[in-house]
């Protein structure tokens, strides 16, 4: 069913988040995969975040949620508007630090988005 991605129930592992939804995917992989996805980039207005959908080689439906410069900048602006002390990210080393021109541009845009 489109736009529905079921998650299995997993036991609580003593952390505030869980890997039940899947594994972390490097930003470079996301940027390459989104172009060949079923959906292209979709936007969730409630979460203020992009995602896309694809089917794997077995026909299993997947959704990939991620942040991009637009979603990061919205979060950074929210932090600033509320007078909060800062913003952080989960894993900056998931960006693409290769010397490819597109990768350099994407990585630079992500870092710049942290400063509203």
UniProtKB/TrEMBL annotation:
It holds the Pfam family Glyco_hydro_18. One of its GO terms (molecular function) is chitinase activity. GO terms for biological process: chitin catabolic process; oligosaccharide catabolic process. The keyword Metal-binding does not apply. Keywords: Glycosidase, Hydrolase. Gene3D superfamilies: 3.10.50.10, Glycosidases. It comes from the Eukaryota. GO terms for cellular component: extracellular space. Residues 1-116 form the GH18 domain. This is DIAC acetylchitobiase. It comes from Sterrhoptilus dennistouni. The gene is Ctbs.
């Amino acid at each position: 069913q489109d736009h529905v991605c079921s998650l299995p129930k997993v036991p609580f592992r003593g952390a505030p988040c869980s890997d039940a939804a899947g594994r972390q995917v490097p930003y470079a992989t996301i940027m390459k995969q989104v172009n060949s996805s079923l959906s292209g980039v979709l936007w969730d207005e409630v979460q203020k975040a992009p995602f896309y959908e694809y089917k794997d080689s077995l026909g299993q439906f997947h959704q990939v949620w991620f942040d991009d410069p637009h979603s990061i900048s919205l979060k950074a602006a929210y932090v600033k508007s509320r007078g909060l002390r800062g913003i952080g990210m989960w894993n900056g080393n998931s960006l693409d630090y290769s010397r490819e021109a597109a990768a350099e541009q994407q990585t630079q845009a992500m870092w710049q988005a942290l400063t509203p």
